[in-house]
Amino acid sequence: MNKILLNIVMLPSGLWKKMGADVEQLRAILTVKLKMDDRKPITIGSQRRQNKKENKASSLRAMFLTAIMGLVYTMTLGMLLAQGVDTIFSFVAYYSFFLFMLTFLLITDFANVLIDTRDKFILIPRPVNDRTMVLSRLLHICIYLFRVVFPMSLSGWVVTGFFLGWKAALFFPIPVVLLAAMAIFFVNGIYMLLMHFAKPERFKKVMNGLQLVLSLLFIGIYTLNSPMITAIMKATQTPVDILKFGWARYLPSYWLASLWSWVGYKAVLPYTLLLGFVAILFPIVCLWITIKYLAPSFISKLGALDNVDVHETSIVSKKSSGKLYKRLANLLNRDDALKAGFIITWLQSTRSQTFKMRVLPSFVLVPFYFFSLLFMNKGGLSASWQHLPHTKTYLVLLYMCSFPLIQASAYVTISEKYRAAWIYYAAPIGEPGKIMAGAFKAIWIKYFFPFYAFIGVFIISIWGPAAIYDLVLAAINLTLYALAGMLVSQRFFPFSRPDQIANSGFKTFLRMMLATIVIGSLALGHYFTTIPTTWMPFPWLLKIIFLLLSTALFWMLWDSYKKTDWNKLKTAEEFA
Amino acid sequence: MEPMITIRYLRKQYGDKIVLSNINLEVYPGQIIGYIGPNGAGKSTTVKILTGIIQDYDGDITVGGKNLRDNVLEIKKMIGYIPELAELYDQLTPREYLNFIGKLYHLPDATIDERSTKMLSSLGLLSNIDQRMESFSKGMKQKVLIASGLLHNPSIVILDEPLSGLDANAVIMIKELLQVLKQEGKTIFYCSHMMDVVEKVSDRIILIDKGNIIADGTIQELRQNSTDSLEQIFSKLTSGGNQVENADAFASAINSSNSNS
Questions:
Q1: pTM
Q2: Global ipTM
Q3: What domains are defined for chain B?
């Protein structure tokens, strides 16, 4: 697989040479980087397995699962095409989803590929020129992207062929390739521009900030995007209505969709034919600017990057926050191991950029989802807002608060500095579960409780104090779910496992799917206890039973997690 | 004889922190320079500038008669760099890694293969040539780094703490190797904290502290007729020689907190 992909990206080697790259070096770098992507890092616990043959099927499996993920987007396309909605606009919807998804993936993962700090010692002292370096990174990302884009667009391809015939299917890959190029060169351009202008001392901070802002923005737009597209689709059934959507021409997804007007699909909006050129030119111009203007300063900036860490010491304030986490640790944990787990997790989660990148956006997801839900209701936002106290929408809101907790608990065991976890194996720890339980407590206190309390106050202010019971029950259910997840797949020390870029996006997706199903059913169960029933004479009894059951179950899981011993940890590590 | 490396008024600062304040230096072919100094003195920064990792500095550096700023790529081809941190792509095997490095220098496959097998065999790593380096000890990784730095037969060899983690046999072997390389006319720039080794292998010792060269000469010149070892000279010049008191203070710190253990 890698070989084929490598040969494909090396096909225009004449062009790469013209751009100033050394083709032989380029091939060598790419070969090595792809090889490394396929190899799973060895963690402390899994050292025994190191000499086993590599699992070649693993990347194929990841691709298969990504294909399933693509089905979600394809469903939109299929539905629109089946309903006979304007073809161009059907593809606008499809490409919008796709483009958002890809850009988001790139924003979070890109920095890791673009700035592999090992390169500083391995590649920079070698006679490799800047353009080769930049191009190798870009092509590496292209291949990574292909592994995501190809399976993800597969179902869309089939659906297009089914509804529009084989000629359309033949044309389908062209806009998709441009779409991928658009996403990658755009994100790359932003990062390199930043590197170009920011001082090396400040670059990392600026980049971290930008990453966070961009992903928050994208999550925000994305959640509002889907109901908006649905609304637009309802309104674009006839050409007359479409004319109202002239602004769509400013969307990159529209440029891509306008390529379909080249192969005979009628476009209602004027100038659509011409916009196809923009879709083609945009990535090329981005690439050209990158290689021509931004690449030359890239290496010197990269070299300067890590030296800065040593010299720019950031002094952590000794005041308020320092006292808070220590006081909390002492207040909530009696055992020293629990305290240690609590403290390390509290501190690391604040300082680790990866962790923040994965967890903080999920906070934004909650209000955005909530409002997009209101937006989708008949009558629009203001009507559904007024009607709000008469609904049970607060249950949805409560259960959505699980997003940050689920993300935080999934990433609490992951870190780039996973090797530092040797300390747990060297320290005299009797029960590893205590460290883990301390970590879970820290996550709960930091990423769930304050947020949940805030939402709780909002809910009580709208629905009245009667909702307090539901607040308690939902909190227990959500904690129960997060804990069950930890018990099944996260019986590890905090920050002790490497992150695998190759399929992290997919894992997040799976986790979210599973969470949606399980939490959805929990919420549904919860909902049944709140509606007046005829078959149940004492509805309050049902409430109490549910509450007791959840609490008991939670207690059992908590106890089991806290008592995780070295054997169970070993089993978990072997299965990981 | 023309100097191989000339450093003039080299200065480097981050924000207001000055790391190198004024380094002037000439290194001749066939010389082994011992470059020493306390932690944070600016040794690694000098090396990183010489190897092209840091490209933003003040002053002038010529290597082999060429200006470093204008000829980075050509100069990189002349240099073999063996870094201090065992930083390598450790998901690869030594064979794969060396093959990759060789490609970056445009060496033919046959040459890479022959050289890497021979090098690793003389370092005692032949049986590990096809194992992933993640499981390697620090010393084993260091050996691969040494091989990767010398694979293209460079005329200047820059070593940053090359012996860290190596076993006694490998240390003897590397010390011998340095002499052989010197006889071949290669220029060697040797950074280390291991004073006894520096004392033995270097033709000339340069001591830097706080970004300045504070001593430069052969070990005999540095001794100035005393019988001090390099370690003692180092301590006197860089800390005033009060390490005994520091050690006492440290030991009493452990004892004073004994009640907690």
A1: 0.69
A2: 0.73
A3: 5-88+155-260 (3.40.50.300)
